[in-house]
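thought: fold this chain, then report.
action: predict
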Amino acid sequence: MIMFVPYMFNLRKLSLLHETKQILKMFNIKPKKSLGQNFVVSSALIRDLIKFSSLSNKDLVLEIGAGIGTLTIELARMARKVIAVEIDKKLIEVLKWRLKEFENVEIIHGDILAMKLPEVDKVVSNLPFNISSPVTFKLIEEASFRFAVLTYQKEFAERMVAQPGSPNYGRLTVALNLLAGVEGLYIQSCRDFTPFKMQERKMSKL
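observation:
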């Protein structure tokens, strides 16, 4: 199932965008292109990540690229425990500040591609776009989880569900068909993220 959701500009999105920019300014953080950093500024997208994850207070959740903790906070309110992995030391400082009241969040400073993945119930993340391919292969080959709800760049997500014989069909498609299975959920506007880029993203379920 692929749902196409039109972009609607609203005050709640503006509010989250303002909050995000204020936090980045407070900690003197500039998004690093080398790390594929992008931050969710859509409350609706956060709600949908939570909804499609079907979280309960029994779930142990892994978040890859926790950023400034916008999604992490909502995960922590619903799940038994959240393991939030972030590679950027400056963002670790933000996470510790924003999540200090949550006893069910474990913050890990590290490279998800270099670490042994914990056994969890679910993986829920707005993935850094520059590690989409290696982290997806790592998840399906090494991780133990029931399912994952992740955001990808649209072009990458289309490769995940490509049909045999199509230009997008390749190693990624074959591996996912053999080891996981993919469900496309819907396309997010590029304006759901900051820094703003003219590239749509797609939410997918593994």
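thought: worth noting. Helices lie at 11-26, 43-53, 70-78, 89-98, 132-142, 154-160, 171-179.
final: tokens above.
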